[in-house]
Amino acid sequence: MQAAGAAAMVGGTALKTISTVQARDVAAKSLEQEAISAEQAAFVQERQSRRDTSFLKGKANAITAASGLSLRSGSPLLMELDRAKQSEIEALSIRRSGQMQAASKRYEGRLQRRAIPFDILGGFLSAGGQATSALGAK
């Protein structure tokens, strides 16, 4: 009778360990998808930023030309150069933010996967301890 109880405890521990391992695997896969999503969102935001900048550049050129100022030299040219530099910095910042979010999610996923062998080992040790305790308590 004690052997049946020990087997039941070991079986329960095995099922718990399997469940834990599967949960970590699902979490790791989910984190990888979040990483991909972060990269894609950053790509879209970067493109949108560049598009917005292009529209603003066109509007500024039209206003400057309508006022009769030269776009080839002087203050309007310097403003345009500064705007171009700042818009590129902003676009690259958006890209980098997405890359950092993705790297963070991938790191969390690797941590989840690295914990799996320890969960399995812990399950074996727990099951062995339960079986020893149940069979030794005659």
How would you characterize this protein structure?
- The chain is mainly alpha-helical.
- 93% of the residues lie in helices and 0% in strands.
- It contains two helices and no strands.
- It has helices spanning 2-67, 75-136.
- The longest helix is centred in the first third of the chain and has 66 residues, at 2-67.
- It starts with a helix and ends with a helix.
- The model has no long low-confidence stretch (mean pLDDT 87).
Produce a short descriptive summary.
The protein is mainly α. It has 2 helices and no strands.
- Note the gap between the termini: 10 Å
Average of the residue pLDDT scores:
87
Query: What sort of overall outline do the alpha carbons produce when their principal axes are compared?
Result: rod-shaped
What structural class results from the helix and strand content? mainly alpha
What is the helical fraction, as a range of percent?
A: over 70%
User: How is the main sheet built?
Assistant: none
Number of strands: 0
